[in-house]
Amino acid sequence: MLRERHLRITVLAFFILSLFICSSGCVRRRMTVKSNPPGATVYLDGKEIGRTPFSTNFDFYGKREFKLVKDGYATKTVIKPVPAPWYELPGIDFVSEVILPGKLTDHKFYEFDLEPERLVPNHELLARAEELRYNAHSTGTIQNNNQNINPSTQVPVTIPTPIPTPAPISTPNLPSYPVPNYPSTEPYRPPM
Hints:
Elements: H1 2-22, E1 26-36, E2 41-44, E3 47-51, E4 54-57, E5 62-69, E6 76-82, H2 92-99, E7 103-113, H3 122-139
Parallel strand pairs: 1-7
Antiparallel strand pairs: 1-4, 2-3, 2-5, 5-6
């Protein structure tokens, strides 16, 4: 009778333990990225992960670099924190990921607004280039009127002297051989 009781307790303990192990905890980390307008290619920490809007799983928390690229819009690079929830803090994470029965889902949402790319008209670009060229020739340094540059940090520009054109290369007089008119089935053999 004592043996049967021990056997029942052992089987019951084994059943409870296996049930506990099979239903052990798990944390699912999910991230949804949207952009306005949609359809931007997203790079997360330098790796392409998809086009907006989309959702993906991720493995770790911390500061992450989001880079969104779309034709006709300025590329946007943002470093955003991906904070861990309270149940993923060190010490507690063992309980939530291994011991706690059931699954926890941590879902992060990120939305980015893209600005249309500003195209500089050709005449404005040429005017800036001419101004820069004029300033470089007249002062020997590059000055930019759009920024406040410390004069001690200006870079001197050396204007290279023109390289003289080389003399034409003369080729030695090579003998020319007459090309006989052979039928096309025979290969050409120069006379010896």
